[in-house]
Amino acid sequence: MKRPKWTRPYWLIDHAPLPRTWRLRWLLSYIDTTFGRRLRCMEREKAAFESQEAVENDWMFERSLIAEEEDEIFTRRTLHQARALRISVEFEKEDWETTSTSSRRVLSDRGTARYREKIREELRWKQDRRAHFVSMMTSAITPIVGIVGAITGLVAVLMKAHGG
C-alpha cells in the first residue's frame, strides 16, 4: 500500500525485511507515539481546537489504514487455510464487508466466525480419521510384535538348552 513518506523511521519500518504483520504492529506503535507526541505538544502550546482535531483525524485515518491491511491479511490467511482444507468459499453478503478506504472485500465478524468453525470442524474430522487409522494399525501390528517376541524367546531358550 502506497503511503506518503513522512519521515525516515516510518519508511525504515515499512520496508524492514520482517513479516508484514510485525511491520504493521511496529508502524502502529510508531504512529501512536508520533501523533501522541504531536498532540501533547499542541495542547501545551494551547493550539486551536480545529488544528488538534485535524491531527486526531489524521491519526485515526492512519490507524484505520493499518487496521484494514491487517483485516486483509487475516482474510487472505483464513481463506487460504479454508481452500487448503477443501472448504468451499461462498460469497454471501452477510459474510463480507467492504473496507472504507481501499474498497476491498474482507470477512465480516460473522463470516470470520463461520469460516473458523468450518475450519475447526474439518480439522477435527481429519484428526478423527488419523486416530482411527492409527488404532487400526496398532491393532494389526500388536499380534505381529507378539509373535516376533515369542519366537525370539523360544530361540533364546533353545540356544541355552543346547549349550549355545
In short:
With 164 residues, the chain is mainly α. Helix content is 74%, strand content 4%.
Structure write-up:
With 164 residues, this protein is mainly alpha-helical. It has one domain (8-161). It is built from 4 helices and 2 strands, in the order αααββα. It has helices at 8-14, 20-44, 49-84, 109-161; strands at residues 96-98, 105-107. Strands 1-2 form a two-stranded antiparallel sheet. A hairpin with a 6-residue loop joins β1 (96-98) and β2 (105-107). α1 runs antiparallel to α2 (20-44) and α3 (49-84) packs across α4 (109-161). The longest helix has 53 residues, at 109-161. The protein is elongated, with a radius of gyration of 30 Å. The mean pLDDT is 85.
- Helix vs. strand class: mainly alpha
How many domains would you count in the coordinates? Answer: 1
Assess the beta-strand content as a share of residues: under 5%
Per the principal axes of the C-alpha atoms, what is the gross shape?
A: elongated
Which consecutive residue ranges, at least 5 long each, have pLDDT under 50? none
> What is the first-to-last residue Cα distance?
80 Å
The total beta strand count reads 2
Average pLDDT: 85
Question: Biggest β-sheet, characterized?
Answer: 2 strands, antiparallel
How are helices and strands ordered from N to C? HHHEEH
The neighbouring-strand order within the major sheet is 1-2
Q: Helix segment count?
A: 4
Proportion of residues in helical segments: over 70%
Radius of gyration: 30 Å
